[in-house]
Amino acid sequence: MLDLLAREPLLLLFVVAALGFLIGRIQFQGASLGVAAVLFVGLFFGALRPDLKLPTVVFQIGLVVFVYTIGVSSGPAFFASWRSGGLRDNLLVVAMLIFAAGILALGHLVVRPDPAISAGIYAGSLTNTPALAALVEAVSRSAPEAVRETVAALPVVGYSVAYPMGVLGPILAIFAAQTLWRIDYRADAKRVRGVHLAEQELYNQTVLVTRPEATGVPVAQLVAQHGWDVVFSRRKRGGEVTLVSGDTTLALGDLVSVVGTPEQVDAVVHAIGTTPPSGEDLAYDRSAYDFRRIFVSNEALAGRRLGDLNLTQRYGALVTRVRRGDADFLAHGDTVLELGDRVRVVAPREQMKALSELFGDSYKRLSEVNLLSFGLGVSLGLLVGLVPIPLPGGIVLKLGLAGGPLVVGLVLGALRRTGPILWTLPYGANLTLRQVGLILLLGGIGVNSGRTFVETLAAGSGVQLFLMGAAVSVTTASVALVIGYRVFKMPFAVLTGLVAGLHTQPAVFGFATEQSRNELPNVGYALAFPVATIAKIVIAQVVWRVLG
């Protein structure tokens, strides 16, 4: 069997991917390795025989696709995060990553491993695969041809030894902090106002207007006056049902449908009236208006604001909410549409066909990738990665295959389109490409580094390397929590998401979301993830060069 795998590298790749996926789904105390298990399965196979190898281009293609798709999807959140306190929080992220490098340097002075291994420990203790890939590329490029493969495996050794505590360390730090400080997540969440969450628990409530102070005033004025984050959908006066606009005024006895989070909707009910004694629910009233979810597959609408479509004037229609992936959020005039969104439309039945044509409503088109924009974007990223960047001390860095496509992806994702070229990808297609890229990346570097990994552990330094990584991971997460909560007074749920983004670790993010039982960790994660990824790509290479 091993002879067959040695002769057929593609077969080896897919065996590693399949077994890694299977092992990655095994749960232990609510946590799992996920797709990162592909790396460890690759290390196992690579350690069995020296001739079990995969072509270098496998992991290179995987790396480029992985980081570019992350950049394109994170671009809008990345640049938006620099407003409303984002600069301070991103500076905290960068400061913590530099702090982590300082801890690593102290460990390096004690243990004295190869500088490439120490730099790999930095990437592993902060669980950042793009940083590892950039290290592998830089180390390989600097080594003579005869030893290039062996030297390039050294960062993977450090990464692999440090990775488990890179996942577990922040989880332990968050658990200890919330226990020590007796965090009440529900009370903590009430401190957050005016934050757009990536996902919201939404429901629809019909309200009977009984308060005179809510009548005779345009709905837009009521919303602004009270600071509500809701959507008024339909109004029933007498036997007539109409859509609600910003200019609509309410009268005593009106029934009005309100969509929002439970907390916000309850505030509206308290301010304007009560729930109808009859139990009538406008949300299911199809007498005058129909409603359905429609896929956004029309590329001409991607990157455009809902308010610019003039749906009420053109079709007598209203969009109340948008579903992106598995997340629902309210639809406002400034909501920007993305390919793959599902919009909930309320409209006259005769207009539904026209609205379906407007939005596209084609699931098939959402599975397609625009190879023109994708190819151009990746090409630009590769070119940026080749540009030398001079740093103090005579160090010259290149963003390389990891940093270049990521930076360009962030910029293009934020732009969304340039003239007729749409840079963003459909949500589902982006996730699929990202997963495939990550599997190619982890499988490639795992298999090709297996032999060096085993030889390093056999030399007896494995425990020391593990402790180095644990010190970096746990200390960095703990200090970030103390500064964020005690000094910056950040809501703890947002802070746990920021720590997960600092470690660029989905497992930590999942733990944070589970503990908070709300979506506030999304805010911190989206804020920190892009900056942390770029910073670690650069810092890991600086660590390698300085320690060397």
Write the layout of secondary structure elements.
Blueprint: H1 2-7, H2 9-24, H3 37-48, H4 56-80, H5 86-111, H6 115-125, H7 129-142, H8 148-152, H9 154-180, H10 185-189, E1 203-209, H11 219-226, E2 231-237, E3 240-243, E4 255-260, H12 262-272, E5 273-274, E6 290-295, H13 311-315, E7 318-324, E8 327-330, E9 342-347, H14 352-359, H15 363-366, H16 371-385, E10 388-391, E11 395-398, H17 400-415, E12 417-418, E13 421-422, H18 427-487, H19 492-502, H20 506-516, H21 520-547
Antiparallel strand pairs: 1-4, 1-5, 2-3, 2-4, 6-9, 7-8, 7-9, 10-11, 12-13
Helix pairs in contact: 2-3, 3-18, 4-17, 4-18, 4-21, 5-6, 5-18, 5-21, 6-7, 6-9, 6-18, 6-21, 7-9, 7-17, 7-21, 9-18, 9-20, 16-17, 17-21, 18-19, 19-20, 19-21, 20-21
Report on the structure:
By secondary structure, the protein is of the alpha+beta class. The chain has a domain at 203-365: Regulator of K+ conductance, C-terminal domain (Alpha-Beta Plaits). It is 59% helix and 11% strand. The chain is built from 21 helices and 13 strands. A five-stranded antiparallel sheet has the order 3-2-4-1-5, covered by helices on one side. A four-stranded antiparallel sheet has the order 6-9-7-8. Strands 10-11 form a two-stranded antiparallel sheet. A hairpin with a 2-residue loop joins strand 2 (231-237) and strand 3 (240-243). The longest helix has 61 residues, at 427-487.
Please bin the fraction of helical residues. 55-70%
| Shape assignment | elongated
CATH architecture field of the domain at 203-365: 2-Layer Sandwich
Largest sheet: 5 strands, antiparallel
- CATH-derived topology of the domain at 203-365: Alpha-Beta Plaits
**What is the CATH top level name of the domain at 203-365?**
Alpha Beta
